[in-house]
Amino acid sequence: EPLELPTSLPSHLPSPSTILEWQAGDCFDMAQVLCSLLLGVGYDAYVVNGYATCAVTQADQSSNKMSVGSSEKTQAESKESAPNKYAIAPRRVLESNFLKQ
To answer: How would you classify residue 76: left for phi > 0, otherwise alpha for psi between -120 and 50, otherwise beta?
Structure first.
C-alpha cells in the first residue's frame, strides 16, 4: 500500500505482532518489526525517519579535530582496561532441577 504523502509519517502503525500475522507491510512496518526484534535481544534500536548527509551515513569523522599527545596514551589505556561489551559470554551449564532431586 503506498503512503499518501511520501515525505510525511503514516497516520498509524500496526503492532509488530499484527504485521507478522499479515506477513506483509511497508518500510515503516518492517522497520518497526526489526526494531522490536532488536530490542527483544538487548540492542539499543530506534525507528527514524528523514534524510542524512553522506558524511553521517558513512560515519565520516575526518572533519573533527583530534588533539595529539598524551590523550592518545590515555585512550589506549582506557581501551585495554574497559571490558569488551561485544565479548561472547561463556555458555551456561544447563542442568535439570528434576534430575538433581
So the answer is: alpha
Question: In angstroms, rounded to a whole number, what is the distance separating the alpha carbons of residues 73 and 65?
Answer: 17
CB 28 within 8 A of CB 43: no
Q: What is the per-residue pLDDT across 54-88, written as a single tens digit (0 to 9) for each?
A: 877 787 777 777 766 655 555 555 556 666 777 77
| φ/ψ (deg, to 5) at 36 | -65, -40
pLDDT tens digit sequence for 12-29: 788 999 999 999 988 888
Encoded amino acid at 100, one letter: K
45-77 residues labelled b (16+ CB within 10 A) or e (exposed): eeeeeeeeeeeeeeeeeeeeeeeeeeeeeeeee
- Name the one residue in this structure whose C-alpha cell is 522497520: 31
**Measured CA distances, 65 to 22, 56, 62 (Å):** 49, 16, 8
